[in-house]
Amino acid sequence: MDKVVTCVAPVNIAVIKYWGKRDEHLILPLNDSVSLTLDCDQMHTKTSIIAGPLINEDSVWLNGQIMSIERNERLKKCFDLIRNLIKIQKGKNSQEEKWKIKVCSENNFPTAAGLASSAAGYACLVYTLANAFGLVNKDLPSIARQGSGSACRSIYGGFVQWTAGVDDQGYDSTAVQIAADTHWPEMRIIILVVNDSKKKTSSTVGMKQAVKTSELLKYRIQKCVPERTKEIIQAITDKNFEKFAEITMRDSNQFHAICLDTYPPCVYLNQVSHEIISFVHDYNEATGQVKVAYTFDAGPNAFLFIQQNDLSLFMSELVNVFPTVQPNSSYLRGIVSTLPNNI
Ligand code: PMV
């Protein structure tokens, strides 16, 4: 009897960035990170799988193109880990771990453009496979992590922390929900797609180079992240927007400073990204309060955080300064997203 399941997983946006691994193979990070998971109605991956005794080989299609599982170590690892879990949870007599699986996955937004596509992609793959085989959820963040680190955070909705852990095998490196999506209903995320082409330096390569060459990265891990993580969790718990916003912007700026401190440097922001940063600071200064925050992943696209009451005034200013923010623009597109649901 074939199993057919479709799931949708949203992207997550880090406010304390993960950058740097202590173990490349198990994908164990050097530092804790914190993120917000978007609503499934917005940027997401949709994955369908069919598995059964009559399927003759594993195959994965992404956005209409077949991927080589053999040449993609992380994809292969996720399949192996899921099969291992089937063996553990279903017992030796189950034949299901031998079944072949066909996967068809699509992103409704640009892939590999610094918009967290791999986070949604691997979270969705692992979650869909687990659903198809009726697997218990507690191991899923660890499996998704081994596809793409930040994917472990997309397993949960709301506000999520990925604890780096200290264990060599990574048993304590997993995602936990800090607060549910309903905790801060006024929070909104605006995504400004500045450039949706594929990034020049992948996160994997950028991080590896940073670990090898950046002095600033060592300082960040030891001196900044532990305190910041505690503070931002407190700000989220208290719904203290100003505090949340300041830590978010500082952390994004420090992450991109590390990218520049990497040798040779990794440049992810462009002129428009810098204009957005200035615009947000000018706006906050003019209002006399911190009303808006920005963060940028490994790409030039901006993620802005704002509370519902401040949204319409800010959007009208934004459209004034960046007229091309109107829908259908290929230069800068704005999507207003509400926060979030679980998959
Ligand atoms: O999970 P990866 O390998 O795509 O790395 C994600 C890195 C950042 O998006 C820049 C930061 C983060 O914590 O999501």
Automatic annotation (TrEMBL):
This protein's pathway: Steroid biosynthesis; cholesterol biosynthesis
Reaction(s) the record says it catalyses: (R)-5-diphosphomevalonate + ATP = isopentenyl diphosphate + ADP + phosphate + CO2
Family matches, as Gene3D superfamilies: 3.30.230.10, GHMP kinase, C-terminal domain
GO biological process, one term: isopentenyl diphosphate biosynthetic process, mevalonate pathway
Family: Belongs to the diphosphomevalonate decarboxylase family.
Function statement: Catalyzes the ATP dependent decarboxylation of (R)-5-diphosphomevalonate to form isopentenyl diphosphate (IPP). Functions in the mevalonate (MVA) pathway leading to isopentenyl diphosphate (IPP), a key precursor for the biosynthesis of isoprenoids and sterol synthesis.
Name of this protein: Diphosphomevalonate decarboxylase
Annotated organism of origin: Macrosiphum euphorbiae
